[in-house]
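Our consortium's second objective concerns turning raw sequence data into structural hypotheses that experimental partners can test. To show how far this objective has progressed, the report includes one record in full. It was chosen at random from the queue rather than selected for favorable results. The single chain below, 233 residues long, was entered without modification.
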Amino acid sequence: MDPTIVPAGIAPDLTAALAAATHSVVLPAILVAVIAYFCGCFNGAVIVSKYTLRDDVRKHGSGNAGLTNFHRTFGGPLTFVVILTDVFKAIVAVWVGILAAKYLIADDSLVIALGKYWAGTFCLLGHMFPCMFGFKGGKGILSGGTIAIMIDWRIALVVWGGFLVLAILTKWVSLGSIWAGASFPFVTWFVYHEWLLLVLAIFLGGLIVWKHRGNLKRILSGTESKFSLHHKK
């Protein structure tokens, strides 16, 4: 048996599994990071607005390249194209992390979970700071929510459940988004109890909260816009 491969159930924790395959971790990690980042760069709102509508969504409304601003600005069936793009790219990125972790590092459940978090983090970085669009992207809630679903259904339940409740009750999508980002590290620790995953979860969730810092200020001042199914004319 190859000593760098750790069969499922052998490694007692994530640190041990990675330690057993140290020399084979770096290259897959870099590969996943690069692929996941460029997956994230395919920002649905920017691509659809610039190349289909010939009007950059970042020049309107909040200036954000996200689903909410796209819907408020343009509306219509192209909103679903934005949704599909941002969901699909997150799915692809996380699957790259899963396959790389399983077949290039170790077939261990915690290593695979780390692959999901690692890929999800770089996908979100690509979405928020896309190199091909001047590093000006979206706030990551749709892609981030898809990543949560891909990671674990229990994490998705907490993140999406709180998001939907707050967004529906207050009509502040941003408040639900802040909950999603802030709750992500806590539920990650509850599910996995692994510090490496917690560090990535703090970074990933912190990115979402940081991106919504302006919304939080407006919520506290009572000036935040409420979401409507009808886009602005």
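The partners drew two points from this record. The radius of gyration is 18 Å. The chain has eleven helices and no strands. Both points have been shared with the crystallography group to help prioritize constructs.
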